[in-house]
Amino acid sequence: MKKYFLYTFLAIASFFAVSAQTAKNDVVNFSAPVTIYISSGQEKHTFEVERAITKAQQARGMMFREVMNKNSGMLFEFKEPKIASMWMKNTQLSLDIIFIKGDGKILKIEHRTKPFTLRSASSEAPVAAVLEIMGGRANELGISSGDIVVHDFFNTESD
After folding, report:
1. Is 124 left (phi over 0), alpha (psi -120 to 50) or beta?
2. Mean pLDDT over all residues of the chain?
3. Most distant CA pair in the chain: distance in Å?
4. Measured between alpha carbons, how far is 134 from 73 in angstroms, rounded to an integer?
5. What's the pTM value of the predicted model, to 2 decimals?
6. Total Cβ atoms within 10 A of residue 42
């Protein structure tokens, strides 16, 4: 009976170990980066971002990445506005998670998220997109709630 439990435990542990490695090795392609702007007061900050549009791209996000340029990021675009919940599972970089409404206005920023945590960062209200940039960058540039993200995806009046 003890051997049965031992073998069952080893089988389950092996399954999770293989699943985690397989997820890391799964190929998820992202298109070439696009340029977005964040209008913050009189400043206009430029970022080159990958777009996470498909479910596979959104599930992978920034997981397993080891480096990030200071003016790069990832824009998660949703088909319909929703309350977004993001986590840092398998993400070794600290990120600023920026929740954006359909008009491009920043609703909320979760600053310097903790790598590898399973704690969710929630928009707490419906958003059209989420932008992830290098942790601490939003504060460094003075980006805050109410600033405007400019990209064709958003219904903004300025460029």
Report:
1. left
2. 84
3. 71
4. 7
5. 0.80
6. 5
